[in-house]
Amino acid sequence: MMIKKSTAKGFLWILISLGVLGCADMDPVEFDVEKPLSIKKQEELNSLEELKTYTSDDSRFKLGAGVSMSAYNAQGAMFSLTNENFQEVTAGYGMKHGAIVNDDGSLNLTSVNEFVENTTEQGVTIYGHTLMWHANQNASYLKSAIAPKEIPLPDGPDWMVLLDQSFETDDATGYQTNGPNAPIAFTAEGEGYNGVGRALKIVNAEVRTNDWESQLFVTFPKVTEVGQKYRLEMDVRTEIAASFPTQAHTAPGGYKYWNFFGSISSTPEWKHINVETTIDANTSGCNTIAFNLGANATTYYFDNIVVSWYNSKGVTYEERTPEEKKDTLSAHLEKWIEGIMTASKSNTHAWDVVNEPMDDANPYELKTGVGNTDLAEDEFYWQDYLGKDYAVTAFKLAEMYSNPDDLLFINDYNLEYNLDKCKGIIEYVNYIEEQGARVDGIGTQMHINIDSDKAKITEMFQLLAATGKMIKVSELDIGVGVKTTEANEELYLAQEEMYKFVMDQYFSLVPKAQQYGITIWSPTDSPASSSWRAGEPIGLWTEGFTRKPAYRGVVEGLGGIDIN
């Protein structure tokens, strides 16, 4: 039989192998293969102990984590990571006003009760966050609580006059034109409707390319809503027979819809106009009627313009006084603080009582919503109604409903970036205490980056330490300047160094008796879908719970604690 060369070689190898194995046992061959550097580095990180093992046995210092209350209550991976590494948790949103207060002012504390029970079982305490803030509020309820009072009309539902302009004085309330194509003038006395008084006179000198190039705007002090009924009454005449349309505007010149009260016809003789309309989606949100005058080269005369709406509820509204608003909000504030603190106090021994009070542009003044027309739906500035003492009230209530030994904090951001803001909050703390309230500590959030000014960080800790108050780094996270998808080892090492620097400065500059704790605001990198620093690698772990160099930076920083 003929065997192919390749087959013969394989057959020979089999025979040799069998012979060797049959003659004697051989020592296994050892291969010296070096591990990839990336694996070695990760193994070094993984060999470190859980974070809280590096803290002192001194229970005064708390290493904390900011967590989603729902994620913690789900008892999944974040639940395990938190319990293994941290001594304290801060609920990112779940304990805030907007998460708990229902639209009728009642409190839904079901998830909070579960959170308290779960943390208690795991030996992890809660940092209460936050009792009084301008954001994350049930602002719709708070606004409704101080909305104008309803006063029943004597005769029930009726038409209510919004604008009544007879043009007998130079008071131009409720009307204007769009410029030189519609100059405003007045008739002589006795040339108004029925020969009484005077009338508004507008000359459109020529036919315009577009009828809206010459317009009269009539504005009334109520915004239309779907389903409401409105009435337009007026007296009008023109030098020639004419017809002109009405448009719905959100403000003079703010066009929304081509038809509001239909088209108005006029003649050289005075004519009384009385037309009603029911508001639909096209005309809702408006408070201005635009009369398009440009299609007719003529003089227009208007008199006795009255705009009314049908008050189907049969009520009128009376604005509450500042004192009434203050009393109403103070009562709700007490109900809110009593409710959340009573539900949480068995496992919560420190509270963020007032959050972010100081204004960035005026760092020695309080924030305000006054004049801001672009407030978010959940924004409500308590201080605009309760005044400068709003924090005094909050701290007194917190002391009333907390445990006797609970610590009460005020908290703000950018204190390391804007040192005047740091000084401003210190001044405000002094003011609060001068009014008889107790403030135990100051929290500095520290949402910073690897290139944040280290000198300012140092000075901030020095300023805070000089107050003699307990000092907490309340929301520490550190960005690297790019998204997670673009980060590299160099940036991660810089992040590690900055975490260590912050902790070194804290432990070296804040006296031990004033060291309340440090909370890592985002233990893992932020998902792209997050509302906070979306897609940024700010954590000590990746989204997949793999340790990063930043983890080692925190371990190194914790090594600065004096445990003797």
In words, what does this structure look like?
29% of the residues lie in helices and 25% in strands. With 564 residues, the protein is α/β, with parallel strands linked by helices. The strands form 4 sheets. It has an 8-stranded parallel barrel, surrounded by 6 helices.
Q: Provide the residue-averaged pLDDT.
A: 93
Query: Sheet with the most strands?
Result: 8 strands, parallel, barrel
The number of E-state strands comes to 23
**How far apart lie the N and C ends?**
87 Å
| Structural classification | alpha/beta
Question: What is the 3D shape?
Answer: elongated
Number of helices, counting only DSSP H or I runs of 4 residues or more: 14
Roughly what fraction of the amino acids lie in strands? 15-25%
The helix content, as a percent range, equals 25-40%
Global Rg: 36 Å
Q: How is the largest sheet built, in terms of strand order? A: 1-2-3-18-19-20-22-23
List low-confidence stretches.
Answer: 1-26, 560-564
